[in-house]
Amino acid sequence: MHQTVKGYTLSDTMMISRRRAWALAIVAAILYTAAQTIQLALHIKDIPVAELYLFELPVWLSILAVSPIVFWLARRFPLFGPKAWRNFLAHLALANAVLFIQFMIIEASRRVVIMPVVIRSGIASTDAALKYARLDADTSLLAQTWIVWRIYVVFFLFVYFAAVVLYHSFRYRRELNATELHTRELQTLLAKSQLDSLRLQLQPHFLFNTLNTVSSLMSRDVPLARRTLARLSDLLRETLRDTATHEVALSSELEFLDVYIDIQTARFGSRLIVEKRIQPAALRILVPRMLLQPVVENSIHHGMRDGDATLVICIDASVDAGSLELKVVDNGAGLRNRKLVENVGLGNTRERLERLYGIDQQMTVDATASQGFTVTMRIPARLAPQPIEEPREREIA
User: Is 388 helix (H, G, I), strand (E, B) or coil?
Assistant: First the structure.
């Protein structure tokens, strides 16, 4: 299956890039020939500029003609690595052969193409111009190539090695980009694997705690235990749905939390009150799946007092300066002279936020001996794509 970009396959895109590179190279050769012609015209006054240009043009186009050979040799004998010196000596020998071929192409194109065009078109109309056009006609192609090679070989050796170095620079840059892309892909896969592991760790932790709640209800109120199992079924369905997605809209996360609160309310009755203060703009912000449930669970687990005392949990959500702030505050028992230790729920939540948002997130846990917990989370405010998921009907057994 071919990868496509705007209707083109990857091979088509590469072919288009090569064609553009060749087109740019030809344009560069034509413009450089013009610059060279201007310099020649300053010294050769009696030859038409057009004639000088046409005779100079094969020189720079011939570089393009032999460049595939040069690039193949550069790939075959790299100038960097353990065999650099040996390959350099090989290039010295091979470069002379390539340049001889190049000069032969130059002289052949001048004799077969340029000279007839210049003479028949009338560009060379004066004796000096005609003499310049036929200057080397009496010398054989091989002999003239040998003469030109001896004169210009040093200069074009520099051109040859410049092309080799240019090839290596492009090649190493491409390999570096491929390595960086591969590294980023590995980092992305690693981060996704770690997020999946964290979520899978959270799911059984949540499940076992909820089953304990159902178990305690079975001895007191069987119908309520059945309804609680139905809520648990809703939770499991939501937990397992779209498991590859790590973020949902806050509105969906609050729906999920409502079902969990229903289960806990079945257990604690009027002793548990959950209040929400949610800005409408915050409902469409993306948050990690199962973000609030472990934080609320932490408040219930550590905040529920003995006796008939009521535990009030307040959930605030607001958007400010491009960030979403979520705050979960309870009036529970607090630490009770114990040291604050983040359990699976809070520790997992903190690590997931770090994996997803890096330095753009913040999570703080404030707790006192008798005034409950305050968990504050700040993450980037990114809108969930439309349409927003509609509330789903819950099945009741």
Answer: coil
Mean predicted confidence (pLDDT) in 303-322: 87
Q: What burial letters (b/e) apply to 246-284, b meaning 16+ CB within 10 Å?
A: bbbbbbbbbbbbebbbbbbbbbeeeebebeeeeeeebbb
Phi-psi region of 374 (alpha: psi -120 to 50; beta: other; left: phi over 0): beta
Condensed to tens digits (0 to 9), the pLDDT of residues 313-325 reads 999 999 998 899 9
pLDDT value, residue 53: 86
The total number of residues written for the chain in this structure = 397
Q: Which of these, 213, 196, 190, lies nearest to 304 by C-alpha position?
A: 213
| pLDDT exceeds 80 at position 241 | no
Say if residue 115's pLDDT is above 90. no
- Contact present, 326 and 316 (Cβ < 8 Å): yes
Q: Which of 57-61, 149-153, 155-159 has the lowest mean pLDDT?
A: 149-153
User: Do residues 384 and 286 make contact, with C-beta atoms less than 8 angstroms apart?
Assistant: yes
Name the H helices within 122-221: 127-133, 141-218
Distance CA 383, CA 385 (A): 6
Long-range contacts of 20-23 (CB under 8 A, 24+ apart): 22/64
